[in-house]
Amino acid sequence: MPKNQLIMNSQSDKIQKLLNSKAALSPFSSAEIRKVEAEGGCGVIGLASTERLPGRHLLSALYQMRNRGNGKGGGIAAVGLSAQHLGTTQAILDNNYLLAIAYLDKQCQVEVERDYIHPLFEIDHMHGMPHVEDFKGIPGIDILPPEVCLYFVRVKSSAYEVFRDQHNLASLSQSAIEDEMVYQNSYRLNLAFYASIGEKRAFVLSHAKNLLVLKMVGYGDDVIRYYQLEEFPAHVWIGHHRYPTKGRVWHPGGAHPFVGLNEALVHNGDFANYFSMCEYLAQRNIHPLFLTDTEAAALIFDLFARNYNYPLEYVIEALAPTTERDFALLSQEKQVIYEMIQKTHIHGSPDGPWFFLIAQSLIENATPFYRLIGITDTSMLRPQVFALQKGEVSIGLAASEKQAIDAALKSLAEEDGRFWPCADYYWNARGGSYTDGGAFIFTVQPQPNGKATLTCTDKFGRAIYKRQEKPYADFKAILGSRFPTQAFIDLPSDKLFAWVKQKSFEWTYEQMMEFLAALNQNAVDDYHIQRAIEVTSKLIDYAGSTQYMRQSCLQALFHQSLSDLIETIARQPTFSYAYLNFKSERPYPLIDTQTLIIDARGFPAEGENSLALEIVKMVKRGFKRFMIVHCQGQRFIGNGLGAGSQGIRIDVYGSSGDYLASGIDGATIFVHGSAQDQLAQIMKEGTLVVHGDIGQTFMYGAKGGKAFVRGNAAGRPLINAVGKPRVVINGTCLDYLAESFMAGDPLKGGGFVIINGILLNEEGGITELDTPYAGSNLFSLASGGAIYLRDPGRKVGEEQLNGGEFQEMTNHDWELILLYLEENFRLFNIPIARLLEYEGKTLEFKDVYRKIGPLHVRILQEEEAWVRGKGRSP
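and the corresponding structure tokens:
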């Protein structure tokens, strides 16, 4: 038998016996399952750290994503807990199952313990979860959350022997049998005390070793507040807003996270094949009780990981199968294995838009370790972003929105100087890809010396972020230092910025802070204030090289320096600068050119009192120039300005939210950093500049305007765009670029996209990406416009053009895009001469840029020529 077949069939007899032992668990036929549709859009966040972090650091991130929830279901999971906070010993925490039971009816506790705990388990410790005395003291909680009791239990030897012999499981390991006993006992307890369609008195929250789930009818941050988790530490955390989007919900058991055994899973999205997944599980004697799609996903993960004992790579492949061109680019060995996995498990693979975050607690060779796993579906239809910060304490994060990650890091940095408010590295996953598999795993491994290590790998086990690490400094110590006023070089902003760039290569953090302090101290009038803002903004935008400082640390210093300067202006507005926050009186401009600085803190993400509507109101009062600082995920910035908004400029600092610049018709918006999803949708006219990466569905349905992106785009940029949008993306995008593009002829005023396929690295140089475009759907189904792809290595093939074709790159094409590459140079300092270099040689533009146009244009032109040749008008 071939080796790969042995891998798939190994221990099949043991597995089948384990599945057979579940046969008596069926509570109802699969026909009783009801599919209930609801819109997906949940807010999720997860973090994994080498040091246990208290739950309060999730509060701001979850609170800022409340617009992704509805108060009907929230929850958290914590892994790698503190024995001290649970009143027990480390040995008990590591070796006992932590059985967390939620009591809605406290009167049934005696019955639950009598029938479902004492017969099977020895109880080594009990711990009642503390909570606030009056739940009504937390605004928005309308339903009393459950009382939670934690039982630290061991399986009784007598019960173990009965279960083993009853189900003929002697060939399995003791730990595998005990795991199944715990799983099945929890199932029976839930069936007896928490029927999803009947009485609800108690249910099991979680039952793994060193893993705890808490959830309720409310928001995720409400869970932290109610159960007083602000000081509760854990190595891994996940949090979730909103209830499941399929099934019977709006009860505490129906909230995320859901558990299999060793993992807790939350997800954003929903499944089109929920019924099929339940049928797949039923064939293996597994029957969801809470009737939600998320529960089915957790049970399938547990089936693959624990019952089938697949490696994590195979578990991810079974959930998010690799297809099409990505499959063809896998090694032959992986293709054989993956094909077997898909044939066996395709009916259990979630189909639809989804993004999973999974917290996992495992033991290997008697040593515990913890994981945070993020997996995205193969179509990448739900937003996701990952981040990594490595230093004395390392942390990995994943969330629905980048702004949530930044909020968590900011919370940490304000308390602990070993953290910085910016991650070293942010990225998106390309679902089901041959490059990274669309999944990333943060693994925390405790060490004998009491410390822990953090590794980040992709689906295939390859390490992420291999750059040479530059030192951190203590963030709080630097900010708390006082720097003397020094003699200052009185240069215009452009020359001063050039001087700082040169000096910063050799500077330390302290020297940089001395310069920034002096820059602000000299800002005593409008000219010097403007100079300080311009220089600091250019430093924020600059991704240049330094010898001793990290870019992530520098970004934090630059933003803090800008914040200090804004506080000075807030105390004493000037002729050129006005200031506004959520509570202050609304000013009128003194002159047409006065800049209004808006502190975004306190403004809701959306709604009547939102930041977006405040900007509209201030435009109506006469302001045309805006600085938006301290953004915290506020959406729709720049929306609603109306037609003919030329002359309006908005500069955005911080973590801006979704839909920025959507619908603009003439305005100019600069984002000083990375941006999120749905930017510039249905944009008609104006300019958008992003000094970083952008998220999903950029410029969806756009009709015109210019956009320049320094970094990468996530999935589906410019789909269904029409008219004349002109876009430069200096990096790449995940997939589905310009799908159904309908932008006419670029040489006759139509639209186009330039993809440069480069990375601006921390050494201040330009790095070629492995390929300028890795996806399978480049310009798919497009009927107009063009893609100008910088591809001197000819790495993109025709098989990636789903409806497009390579066309001749003419002098007229080069003259057209040269104008935009020149503007791109002015914005991002990316020389055109460098773009024309490849492998140390300078090439002609025709050998560097390739033009991709819609396939049907050529066919229509041929038809037209044939008709004219027949002497008839077309």
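(Above: one complete record from the training split.) The longest strand covers residues 44-54.
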